[in-house]
Design a protein that fits this description.
mainly beta; 5-stranded mixed sheet; 4-stranded antiparallel sheet; 3 helices; 32 strands; globular; disordered C terminus
Length: 454
């Protein structure tokens, strides 16, 4: 659930470092001087999969090694919603395995589809809801539910391999389950106090094979939309709801450093790890014109030199509020291009008000209450893919270099009729693009000539 906020937010960067255990970097300037002492490794078990987590593959999160189709209407191939009706569940994160099968988390469980849209299995979870984006690792689908369980399913059969209850509740925000080097991470212990009502108070690490608990970490402030990203094979970074960044030893949970954050504030955003050795965080400030309420993507954007930061901006749940996508220079923070998205037209975002009664009837939360944008993805061509709260799923690129994204050769869209949850991130595989709105799964293929839906 996403509360309304009135502040403005900024993406800030810290130079990653394996510094002395427990070192507390109190300001961004001092942390930015720390050199990256460990290198991003290019091999991981996630390489078996095309899109292994809600933010893609380590180490190039939110960036695909494959091109995705730009002409979305022509590439649309199939969609899925609950057989009892579009509003019978809420849909969240997508991941794709090495055979281009798609896994979808939803309020009522997890489903596996082949690339043609056939359901191969479903794992039903109600009354517990699966709000977070899942992760693929070593033949298993890792996820968590609102009743405090972290669990793993056999990718082939959908059968439960293990389930561990780590808390009474896990929050109904839209976070991410992540796995690396045999360790599964998730946030838990959803309760007060926090800077916004209830929130997850703890970070848990489990053995990815057995579900045995390994360690627990208590951040200074609770986490929201928990997104842990691995900077190497031995450490992980994430941020709390104030924008403070933590780097932990992955094996032990020991704090390596923490930095930034604005006490007493709240953000819907998450970190990004850049290939330039920087960690980008989101917190409250007066730099961006609207809140950047999601996790940025860092990579090569079409027709731009060097690395760029793609940051969606929007004041969600506010009628008339405008929504933009900004692209910044990853080293300097300079604005490189901007796309002006549509303003929110209704009292709630697309698809939310229409489905309230049906969702309640089917035993899931009444509304998606999403961010203004989904999390963005950059494909190998440098095209940005992102979903908007008015229902449009966009492909964006700057072909003429004027810094404004406009026209049919720079903007393609497909109207999904619904907004996108915070854990929603377009997933890319060879010739295939998948994204979940708040109520349906949409799949696009590069070779599609006669699109069909069901």
């Amino acid at each position: 659930m996403k509360p309304m906020i009135s502040g403005l937010l900024i993406v800030i960067a810290f130079r990653s470092s394996a510094s002395t255990h427990g070192e507390d970097c109190q300001d961004a300037e001092s942390c930015s001087q720390l050199l990256l002492q460990t290198h991003l490794f290019t091999r991981d078990r996630a390489e078996e999969y095309h899109w292994a987590s809600g933010r893609g593959n380590f180490p190039k999160y939110a960036v695909s090694a494959h091109p995705a189709p730009f002409n979305l209407p022509a590439a649309f191939t199939w969609q899925w919603h609950h057989p009892l009706g579009r509003f019978a569940t809420l849909t969240y994160g997508t991941v794709i395995d090495g055979e281009s099968n798609i896994y979808l988390s939803a309020a009522d469980g997890v489903r596996k589809f082949d690339q043609h849209g056939t359901i191969l299995w479903e794992y039903l979870s109600l009354p517990a809801e699966v709000m977070n984006a899942p992760a693929l690792y070593s033949g298993m689908v890792h996820a968590s539910d609102t009743h405090g369980h972290i669990f793993a399913l056999d990718m082939r059969t959908g059968k439960q391999v293990w389930r561990t209850r780590v808390a009474e509740k896990i929050g109904q925000d839209n976070g991410f389950n992540m796995v690396h080097e045999g360790i599964a991470l998730a946030a838990c212990d959803h309760r007060k106090p926090s800077n916004y009502d209830e929130a997850n108070q703890k970070v848990k690490a489990l053995n990815a094979s057995t579900g045995d608990e390994l360690w627990t970490f208590h951040p200074d402030t609770p986490v929201w939309n928990f997104l842990p990203l691995f900077v190497d094979d031995s450490s992980v970074v994430f941020q709390d709801m104030t924008g403070k960044v933590y780097r932990l030893n992955l094996s032990t949970g020991l704090l390596l450093w923490k930095a930034g954050g604005l006490n007493g504030t709240w953000t819907d955003g998450g970190v990004a790890v850049g290939p330039n050795g920087l960690v980008y965080a989101v917190n409250l400030n007066l730099t961006t014109p609207r809140p950047p309420n999601n996790a940025p993507a860092v990579g090569i954007v079409k027709n731009l030199k060097g690395f760029s930061v793609v940051m969606p901006l929007c004041q969600q749940q506010t009628r008339g509020a405008t929504c933009d996508v900004h692209v910044y220079d990853a080293e300097t923070g300079g604005l490189r291009w901007i796309f002006h998205g549509p303003a929110q037209t209704g009292v709630l975002q697309a698809g939310d008000a229409e489905g309230i009664s049906r969702r309640i009837q089917h035993g899931v939360r009444a509304a998606c209450l999403p961010n203004g944008w989904s999390a963005p993805t950059i494909d190998s061509d440098g095209t940005v893919f992102v979903g908007n709260e008015e229902g449009n799923f966009y492909a964006l690129r700057d072909m003429d270099g004027d810094g404004v994204i406009f026209g049919e050769d720079e903007v393609a869209l497909y109207d999904t009729k619904a907004s996108f949850a915070g854990s929603s991130s377009p997933a890319v595989a060879p010739g295939l693009l998948a994204v979940a709105s708040c109520d349906s799964l949409f799949v696009f293929k590069s070779s599609t000539i006669h699109p069909t839906g069901f």
